[in-house]
Amino acid sequence: MTTTTSMTGTTPMTTTTHRPAPFGRALCAMITPFTASGALDLDGAQRLADRLVAEGCEGLVLSGTTGEAPTTTDAEKAELIRAVRAAVGDRAAIVAGVGTYDTRHTVELALAAEKAGADGLLAVTPYYSRPPQDAVEAHFRELADRCGLPLALYDIPGRTGTRIEPATMIRLAAHPRIVAVKDCAYDLLGTQKVLAETELAYYTGCDEYVLALYALGGAGYIGTVAGVVPRHFRSIVDAFDAGDTAAAARLQRAAIPLTEAMMASGLPGAVTAKALLGRLGLPAGPVRAPLRPAGREVADGLLRSYEELTAP
User: Fold this and answer.
1) pLDDT in the model for residue 18
2) Band of the pLDDT at 133, cuts 50, 70, 90?
3) 251 partner at 20 to 30 Å CA-CA among 33, 102, 229, 310?
4) DSSP 8-state code for residue 236
5) Which family does it belong to (predicted)?
6) What gap in Å lies between CA 216 and CA 218, rounded to an integer?
7) For residue 36, with 0-12 CB atoms within 10 Å meaning exposed, 13-18 middle and 19 or more buried, which class applies?
């Protein structure tokens, strides 16, 4: 990565050479809409996907953490991919979450996602069993060997209990189908070490780090808050790419109240995203147990933060 700086008038212009972004720069972790009775709402998913793409999303991540993947069936995951593909066509990449705590099951989901029309895969570190690093590496290698789609590794030790250590990530980067990382490790030093040693496309999964990681040469973001205000987060990377780093920083800071309300309130992002989308009249529906819906006071606060951010 190289950075050059020039001056045009009084406006500093910064050009950063980013590594290729295999799924686009601006991705959202899409919720999985359900009907009032808790069934999969495919029509709602199509309407929501169409809105997200129209508002600037270049890629949609389905069946991730925000998509409540642990409580949807294998058949529902495949149905969701097919429905969203029909809605967005080739206007956006579809990345399917396939990670589980079972290597065999993960491979099965990956093959089904490929058949259903996904463009890429997102696989979380196996959880609960807390495998050591050699087993983590073997798990991802088997998945990459068995599937035909490009694979993004999902590093979120706060949920899985197991980190993909930087040294493991560097070794896995040699596999031709392991092309990207969704980074929720909150270890910027470790991330920079992998960026320096590999060509992996790094996507932050933490909305508060969108600009920070992008400025370091990351590929973009996979955001939960971005799934509610997609145009705002797209404008952060657009401003940076245009050389207006001051505007990019201002836009990132402007999103702090909504990001904090959605991601630091003690509630999962799936809960807060669905509460806010429901208040906006967009497809969402209930969360599935064991998650519980946000209360009225929380939903009111989310709406206030949203209106402050999006006010003209």
Assistant:
1) 67
2) very high
3) 33
4) H
5) Belongs to the DapA family.
6) 6
7) exposed
Report whether 94 belongs to an annotated binding site. no
Alpha carbon distance 217, 269 (integer Å): 26
> Hey, what amino acid is at 114?
E
- Which residues does the annotation mark as catalytic? 154, 182
Q: 13-32: per-residue pLDDT in tens? A: 444 556 689 999 999 999 99
pLDDT of 236 > 60? The answer is yes
| Cβ neighbours of residue 208 closer than 8 Å, sequence gap 6 or more | 252, 255, 256, 259, 263
Element (H, E) at 95: strand 93-97
Question: In this structure, how many other beta carbons lie within 10 angstroms of the beta carbon of residue 218?
Answer: 26
H/E element holding 154? Answer: strand 151-155
257, two tokens? 């109240």
Which token pair is 231?
Answer: 């145009």
Rounded to the nearest 10 degrees, what angle do helices 296-310 and 269-279 cross at? 70
Q: Which of 288, 178, 243 is nearest to 9 (CA)?
A: 243
Residue 72 in marked binding region: no
Q: What is the pLDDT of residues 245-264, one digit of tens each?
A: 999 999 999 999 999 999 99
DSSP state of 286: P
For residue 103, what are its two tokens?
A: 């290597």
* Tokens at 170, concatenated: 């560097």
Residue 10, pLDDT above cutoff 80: no
Q: List Cβ neighbours of 197 (8 Å cut-off, separation of 6 or more).
A: 170, 173
Q: How far is CA 196 from CA 170, 190, 200, 216, 282, in A?
A: 10, 10, 10, 10, 41
